[in-house]
């Protein structure tokens, strides 16, 4: 079931789990309900922050982890040490491998309030065990992808570079680089994302490199000697205008790019372009960084900028670092079930979903139904089989899964109505229709 | 240098690194500046979000990773594949092990704008390589700890439970559980945090467990049979009042606790307390969960609540998911250096730091100086030696490091002036004085 990627397998993910999943399994094993056939669904009650659409990301990472979701001797010993000593539970966990079915939206697809982005059919015990990991992965990765997609819109066709690793947990950084690439970020600074997912990596130098040298000129000379004239020189350590002049003197008009990382970027970029042109460096690109988010990127649309480096706001989801997806039991032994808690009611029963499109191929509604929908022209089935009897349906390498998700995202995003790409707060771009 | 913890070592952390750190090393090796002796400092220019103080967390995790920060054959091959083929660079990386010195604030200490929380003295090449990982760890963990500390204040002496794993990346969740425990969260739901850091874990059941059963009573009976009468029953799946009655019928007045996860919690908790008392369950605790943050916790101060479960807002830093720490070259071959970029100027030269206290032991200032400070009564030296010649100064297990950080935090937090604990936005509780 596992794909051999030539990489070290990830650390056993079974303990990335809330303790209550295991106490529930213990109690259900004891009273005979553990084997009841259940359907769990992952969905978000709303989009965060007045967003118009969400991007589902993380499915590929979840499928990567699934074959390793086992309780080995080390895990069992750790559970004992934490006071989980119920012999029936521990025996069951030692034998556990997921044997159920999973369907879901294809990774990279869009989602809206109530979209059933993942459906797990399994015994209660098997299904409930996956809750924490599934939500961790999907909530994090979808938050990053959803924010990143807005940045890509704001950047129009100019390339975006992901460079937020230092602003988030070191493993989250790898997942963030993956999610950003999925929606169209051209490259990432993160070397591990390059290794695991073949995300193209880029990077040249920081202010420290200039400060290391006796003067800016020696730093630029060293960088050009090592990385070639096509490199990007960081010109704002001391004085931007002098930095640009020195950069062109050192590299000549073939200089690949300059980077601006401070100050009022629209003004600075305009002046930099004029100066570069005056110096004959008409092909030298201007890359800007420095606390960019989708709004700052949009504010630079009229400026002569050739690329955006985005860090903090990307890896923190630009105000929405998690997307509030939940994993709910919706059916038990064929009977729809739902809680009735105030403000958190859910709709029972397994769901099916199609996205409806008009004659021009523009999405018009997310149709979520209790029974499979009779397809109309323009309907696209949203749920695809991911796991059958515990086996990944279409095992591919992590890099190939990302590449497919990227292509799928580009396709489905093109079908959104134009108002979906407004950056202002608003309603979801299409309504979710529950039938 | 590595402490044998009996655990699988973490995945090789060397590629949790921005590509430009390596291109800088390559260029510096080529022009002979790689060996210049450098001092890098980690500090935050400001506290996020009008906070009054920050909590430094992550130092222990960084020290855990340092011995594994090596470039093995797999890493070197991955770099080649990404186009980093410079032979001098790859040879140097293959031999790399950090051989410099690191000082820093003790983990769990407080920090303020400009506090030099970590100082790395090494050759340029060795020092610059650690930048990305150091910032990832400290920015993430400090964000969580800083938010968690405010929740602990708001909760007064009532216990807080960390339960946010599902709302953040699965590895970030483990670090978040660790950071929360550091500042005083009693327990976590995260089993891996239990394994790696001996954070006490707790958990009982979710709504799914009630829905799995034919009725609420059977679910409660199963849970009490498996976990004992001291367990906490979740009573809001259907009707709270009926849920409480059933819970006490099933477990008797010895019922350990009930959990409320929806609705208007102050009102519900008050009614629940009255009903429990009426039913004779006067010792049964009331635990509340459901999108709590420090403000919601404060809003429950007058309600009869015995514990708070906190998820989303904790693991996302309650509005500040990262704290903006930077890693800056401040000295090269004994010469202070600093960039002059607009809005991002930094102060050159290695710093020393003490926290000044008045005669009553209340902190009055963070004194950051270019030379070691002549100690006055009430001054506490903030920088402690962490690494000498590449060796961890005081190697302890991950759990022991956390336990020490927790004790240290409690001590230093007690020295803050009372206004530091206001939840409203404001200025840092003490001024940073640069001498």
SSE order and pairing:
The structure is a homodimer of 435-residue chains.
Chain A: H1 19-31, E1 37-44, E2 54-55, H2 59-65, H3 73-81, H4 87-95, E3 101-105, E4 110-111, E5 118-123, H5 124-129, H6 131-154, E6 160-162, H7 170-183, E7 187-188, H8 191-197, H9 207-212, H10 216-227, E8 232-234, H11 240-251, E9 257-260, H12 265-278, E10 285-288, H13 294-298, E11 307-310, H14 312-315, E12 325-332, E13 335-336, E14 352-357, E15 363-369, E16 380-381, E17 383-388, E18 391-392, H15 398-413, E19 431-434
Parallel strand pairs in A: 6-7, 6-11, 8-9, 9-10, 10-11, 15-19
Antiparallel strand pairs in A: 1-5, 1-12, 2-4, 3-5, 3-17, 12-13, 14-15, 14-16, 17-18
Description:
Chains A, B: Pfam families: NAPRTase_N. Chains A, B: It catalyses: 5-phospho-alpha-D-ribose 1-diphosphate + nicotinate + ATP + H2O = nicotinate beta-D-ribonucleotide + ADP + phosphate + diphosphate. 2 copies of one chain form a homodimer. The first copy, chain A, is an alpha/beta fold. The first copy, chain A, has 2 domains: 13-144 and 320-434, nicotinate phosphoribosyltransferase, CATH 3.20.140.10; 157-316, Alpha-Beta Barrel (TIM Barrel), CATH 3.20.20.70. Helix content of chain A is 36%, strand content 18%. The first copy, chain A, has helices at 19-31, 59-65, 73-81, 87-95, 124-129, 131-154, 170-183, 191-197, 207-212, 216-227, 240-251, 265-278, 294-298, 312-315, 398-413; strands at 37-44, 54-55, 101-105, 110-111, 118-123, 160-162, 187-188, 232-234, 257-260, 285-288, 307-310, 325-332, 335-336, 352-357, 363-369, 380-381, 383-388, 391-392, 431-434. In chain A, the strands form 4 sheets. A 7-stranded antiparallel sheet of chain A has the order 13-12-1-5-3-17-18. Chain A is globular and about 80 Å long. The two termini of chain A are 37 Å apart. Chains A and B meet through helix 1, helix 3, helix 6, helix 7 and helix 8 of A and helix 1, helix 3, helix 6, helix 7 and helix 8 of B.
